Amino acid sequence: MGLSEVKQELRKLDKERLVDLLSDLYKKNKSVKEYLDFYVNPNEKELFLKYKDKVYEAFYPKRGDRLKLSDGKKAISDFKKLEASKELLSDLMLFYAETGVEFTNEFGDIDEPFYNSIASVYSNALALMDKENILDKFAERAKKIVDDTSGIGWGFHDELGDIYSDYYN
To answer: Is the CB of residue 160 less than 8 Å from the CB of residue 119?
Structure first.
């Protein structure tokens, strides 16, 4: 079944049944709950802080000591799906890169997949900022990320430097 078939069936329902259906989805599906909460009360700043905490916890979990970079990337992806501002999405992506660099400087060299993840998100953040014409707003932070990688192995510093110079002269 595709979206057109679902829409067709939903159009057959009366308003009360649609409200019941959405209420059931709200109770049973965490992502639907979050989406509808944001739809009803679009407080972007509050939502941003919630997702920023999720990104931070991917590097510094409250329980255990295992990195969960996939959780950090998922937080960025979920935040993007809520259609918050591109500026806040860019901010969250830079925060992911900043936190990854901070983690490395605190605990020492990690591994190539770790650095690839950080570089990928950093690159995507700068590409988004370029598209949205907000590179200037984040220039200082973007440069600091590169500067803070000096001395980190795996060619990480050079890669971030190359990404940075693709967007900033």
So the answer is: yes
pLDDT tens per residue, range 19-43: 888 788 888 888 777 778 767 777 8
How distant is the alpha carbon of residue 152 from its chain centre?
24
Q: At what angle do helices 69-81 and 86-107 cross, to 10 degrees?
A: 170
CA distance 138 to 165: 14
Say what the pTM is.
0.84
Tokens 């939502």 map to which residue? 47
CB 51 within 8 A of CB 79: yes
Residue type, 69: L
Report the SS3 class of residue 151. Answer: coil
CA separation, residue 165 to residues 34, 36, 46, 112, 160 (Å) = 37, 40, 33, 21, 9
Query: What residues does each domain of the chain span?
Result: 1-41, 44-167
Mark 35-58 as b/e (b = at least 16 C-beta within 10 Å): beebeeeeeeeebbeebbebbbbb
